[in-house]
Amino acid sequence: MVPGVDFDLHGNRMGRGGGFYDRLIANFSGKTVGLAFDFQLFNRIPTENHDQPVDLIVTETKIVKV
After folding, report:
1. Given pLDDT bands bounded at 50, 70 and 90, which one contains residue 60?
2. Cα–Cα distance measured from residue 16 to residue 21, given in angstroms and rounded to the nearest whole number
3. What pTM was estimated for this model as a whole?
């Protein structure tokens, strides 16, 4: 499970700017799940080259398979 400030429908996440989870996900071989509320889910958020997407996003009303 990966926290985030915001997520988009492509699995991208916006964290708090430290890159900790991006480094962790880059070397992780399992599935990653972002947990969020509906208001944290957007069509597209800005990303950078080092950003690592999650495989699945779960909100209180939906599951987004990336």
Report:
1. very high
2. 10
3. 0.87
